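I hope you will forgive my troubling you with a question about protein structure. I set the record out below, with my sincere thanks for your time.
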Amino acid sequence: MRFDTIIIGGGLAGLVCGIKLQKAGQKCAIISAGQSAMHFSSGAFDLLGRLPDGTEVKEPLKAISSLPAEHPYSIIGAEKVAEYAAQAKGFFADCGVKVTGDASRNSWRITPTGERKPSWLTIGDFTPLAAKEEKIGNKALIVNILGYLDFNTKFLADSFEKQGTECRIVALKLEEMERLRKNPSEMRSTNIARVMDREGIWETAVSQIRTLLKDEDVIVLPAVFGLKDGSVVEKISETLGKKTIFVATMPPSVPGIRTQMTLKAEFEKAGGRFFLGDTVIESKADENGIIKSISTVNFNDIRMEADNFVLATGSFFSKGLIATPEKVCEPVFGIDLTYREGRENWFNTNFWEKQNYISFGAKVDETLNASIAGKKIVNLYAIGSVIGGTNSLYEGCGGGTAIVTALAAADRILEKK
């Protein structure tokens, strides 16, 4: 099989890069092992929440100049990051993903545990807060579904009450959920969302919520609606007739999965090939180090050839990086990585402290080309969290790094025509 570009990894970075290339006339394939970080999303893409020294960032674009040289944003350049950040909102809108936000100033998202974290682009299900201390309302009705444990109402109530909002917690008892409740492992957000997607079910839930309301001016709901159709979320808010805030649940994430499905559909609609549930096991290069082809588990002897290859396999979580007791490696191409020598320097024994291993990853240059044994591979690009130089969890820049590097790599490939 022959393609212009093969992208390994079907998460946010891989899909954004693939969509841009495919719409620009390239013939692209994406090889995806399965789950991605979007399945665990809290409903927002973060550009930059704080600097490596812990300084809180309110204006991400202005703060990029303060990042170290090895950070992906520094490698791309502040001006280009601003350009790609400006493109992102329109990109998602064109793909059918509604987002709000501005790269010039962070808003705040509510996490499943009630914390407030800075964000850049917020998926349409959610209501971003203008300030960390913003009060959501005078009185809040926090609504859960009976037996659902991945929506921690007590944590949320404690958080809201610190900001002066009086909270009352209730649970919906829906007949349609009884089968799920018989097996606690079935009471997951995606299974609940599938039930809610059935005709008349979310309307029944809304009707019950209205009977439970007293004098509350805001309703807080788990984000377990609209797995296939995000417009359901808007309809629920309109039907309730009160300020309604949807809060992300513990994984899996319904809005995150819906976003990935929407982007995948957009890629395929543009003519791209998406190979789900497959893993690359080998690559071949010519005498100059140019990658010529790969083989996968599913296609076995049938090699996949391309002019360009994009590595978007993520970090340790998705096995884009592999750690042994002695070293860290990238399993597909064996590209050069940046990581600290000595396993004792990889992590902090205090779980809650910043962990060094999260900043490990691929060495790339300004064109996002990776290298192997010190030699730049001109047709191999690394994007997203497989790139080193940033602790995305600590700095709050995972989504932004994925989007910005994906758009940048696509441009580099298109410039080669």
